[in-house]
UniProtKB/TrEMBL annotation:
Belongs to the RecN family. GO terms for cellular component: bacterial nucleoid. Residues 378-405 form a coiled coil. The keyword ATP-binding applies. The keyword ATP-binding applies. Residues 1-12 have a biased composition (Basic and acidic residues). GO terms for molecular function: ATP binding. It comes from Modestobacter italicus (strain DSM 44449 / CECT 9708 / BC 501). Keywords: ATP-binding, Coiled coil, DNA damage, DNA repair, Nucleotide-binding. This is DNA repair protein RecN. InterPro entries: DNA_recomb/repair_RecN (IPR004604), P-loop_NTPase (IPR027417), RecF/RecN/SMC_N (IPR003395). Residues 31-548 form the RecF/RecN/SMC N-terminal domain. Residues 1-25 are annotated as: Disordered. GO terms for biological process: DNA recombination; DNA repair; SOS response.
């Protein structure tokens, strides 16, 4: 039975209705519902998020960024108790709709999560004012790290202060690898495995060379134990067999009497070695007499019973033969008994020395097998070191060949990647910007993902030196570079939800419209949420949310509400963004024109 996260009815809420899009939806999944409680100025709001492009607008300081903060918190981001209302508790809940083939389902199942009744996946996160944080996934309490791991396949947040994927050289290298294609990515994985093999061999060789004395001593201990066990030569199950033999040898006379008495009762003294004399009728004779009596009858039932008695006679005779063999094998020789007891004592000594309690001789043999395997790792002889060195060198040669191929693939992809990103930037108020990759290869120092250090360089305008993008770009430029990269990767990125926080800072006019157009293009394959202050961007929205701030007289604090706007309400909001006056006729006319242009551009 699926467990559903409890959802008490909020005191005030605004809903942005989910609406089907005419041109594409997020094929990898979508966040259909988001509830935020007690976070910053937000008291309690629930957002029904639609597919495609959702924009969040509102006056400066109204709390637009709290939507992004809530999303980040929901997906395992760092909890900031300073965002929680004094003495209260902040909470964020979300409902994810994912395709059946999404890898998120397998990871969620490993964490014990279950889908909700409608097949969606419920996430929840709470943070107290004291900083304590809890996460829930599919009705189960889970470590926050589990949700953060899932977020890698679910959410990408891009903001002016959160540009981690562009500022880290390793992430820039992975972006280039991704652009190079699946065959190149498979080659990188092969390189990673080869690097692990080489490092293991190299570390093993270094360890043996630097710890010759310690390893030699450890090997001597193992050899001594193996020699001691080998000298005795115990066989599997021998300890139990010796116990059985010792009991038989110690009780030979009593056992012989018991076996002979049983044989006499079954077949009598047929050999004359049981004392002769007048003996009572034995079982075999009695059964044979009964069988002959019944066999002479014409009654079918008695004839069948006679056959059963004949089978019984055969069984009795067979048991008698086995008893005779048992008696013949009994040995009352004291010397043999002493020999058995001595070997059993020797094996017992090995068990005490090399086996865990309760394991017996099987534990000794297991220790010997393990010791033999460990000896191969402790061998510091010249021959062993030379063989290991040869393996290491062969692995290094294989790694070098793979590194060269990985480097060649990156260099081949770098020019095309940079050109495509530059073409996108041309329409984002960075017409003269030049993007390039600097690939510095050191074949002598290969890492798991190759021998290359990759840096994404940006020259914002002609004459400006190309510098690493996180150093040579302003916050707004960095956001636009990220947007350009995401547009290049549109349709290939498995992350279903993308969030952009103020990516249009410092942009206006035609460039703002181009940002909106590109975000709408991304939204054909992803669910895109954008916090913006530009009407030119907001005009492209499929869902438009407005953040309003108003005094809460009951609590004496300022509260934030979020509402969805459509039709004339949306025109008024765009007019406010354009001119500062929601009721301006000129502003509203301009807003309607923007909506029409955006609809045409989106189509």
């Amino acid at each position: 039975m699926a467990t559903r996260t409890a959802r008490p009815e909020p005191r005030s809420r605004s809903r942005a209705p989910s609406r089907p899009r005419e041109a594409g939806t997020a094929v990898n999944g979508a966040l259909t519902e988001l509830r935020i409680r007690g976070l910053g100025a937000i008291d309690d709001v629930t957002l029904d998020l639609g597919p495609g492009l959702t924009v969040v607008t509102g006056e400066t300081g109204a709390g637009k960024t709290m939507v992004v903060t809530g999303l980040t918190l929901l997906f395992g981001g760092r909890a900031d108790p300073g965002r929680v209302r004094a003495g209260g508790r902040a909470g964020v809940e979300g409902r994810l709709v994912l395709p059946a083939e999404s890898p998120v389902w397998a990871r969620a199942a490993d964490a014990g999560a279950e889908p909700d009744d409608d097949g969606s996946l419920i996430l929840a996160r709470t943070v107290s004012a004291e900083g304590r944080s809890r996460a829930h996934l599919g009705g189960r309490s889970v470590p926050v790290g589990v949700v953060a791991e899932l977020a890698e396949d679910l959410l990408a947040v891009h903001g002016q202060t959160d540009q981690l994927r562009l500022t880290r050289p390793a992430e820039q290298r992975r972006a280039l690898d991704r652009y190079a294609g699946p065959e190149h990515l498979a080659l990188v994985e092969e390189h990673r495995a080869a690097h692990a093999t080489w490092r293991q061999l190299a570390d093993d060789l270094d360890r043996r060379r630097s710890q010759v004395r310690e390893l030699t001593q450890a090997a001597d201990v193992l050899r001594h134990g193996l020699e001691e066990i080998s000298a005795l030569g115990p066989e599997p199950g021998e300890d139990e067999e010796l116990d059985t033999q010792a009991r038989r040898l110690g009780d030979a006379d009593a056992l012989r009497t018991v076996a002979d008495t049983a044989r006499l009762a079954l077949v009598g003294d047929v050999t004359g070695d049981l004392g002769g004399g007048e003996l009572p009728q034995d079982a075999s004779t009695a059964l044979s007499t009964a069988e002959r009596a019944l066999a002479g009858s014409d009654d079918p039932t008695l004839v069948l019973l006679a056959q059963d008695l004949a089978d019984a006679v055969a069984v009795v005779s067979d048991v008698a033969v086995q008893l005779a063999s048992y008696v013949a094998d009994l040995d009352a020789d004291p010397a043999r008994l002493a020999e058995v007891l001595d070997r059993r004592a020797a094996i017992t000594a090995l068990v005490r020395k090399y086996a865990e309690p309760g394991e017996g001789l099987a534990g000794v043999l297991a220790w010997a097998a393990d010791a033999q395997a460990r000896l191969s790792q402790l061998d510091v002889s010249d021959e062993a070191l030379e063989a290991l060195e040869a393996q290491r060198d062969a692995a290094r040669e294989q790694l070098a060949a793979l590194s060269a191929r990985v480097t060649a693939g990156r260099r081949a992809a770098a020019e095309g990647f940079a050109a495509e990103v530059g073409a996108e930037l041309a329409g984002l108020a960075m017409k003269n910007a030049q993007v390039s990759f600097h690939i510095d290869s050191d074949p002598d120092q290969p890492g798991p993902e190759g021998a290359d250090e990759v840096a994404l360089l940006l020259s914002p305008h002609p004459g400006a030196p190309a510098r690493p993008v996180h150093k040579g770009a302003s916050g707004g430029e960095l956001s636009r570079v990220m947007l350009a990269i995401e547009v290049v990767f549109a349709g290939a990125d498995p992350v279903p939800v993308m969030v952009f926080d103020e990516v249009d800072a410092g942009v206006g006019g035609q460039a703002a419209g181009e940002i909106g157009r590109r975000l709408a293009r991304l939204a054909r394959e992803h669910q895109v949420v954008v916090v913006t202050h530009l009407a030119q961007v907001a005009a492209f929205a499929d869902t438009h949310l407005v953040v309003d701030k108003s005094p809460d007289s009951a609590q004496g604090v300022t509260a934030t509400d979020i509402r969805a706007v459509r039709d004339e309400d949306r025109v008024r909001e765009l007019a406010r963004m354009l001119s500062g006056l929601a009721d301006s006729d000129t502003g509203q006319a301009h807003a309607r024109e923007l909506i029409a242009v955006a609809a045409e551009g989106r189509g």
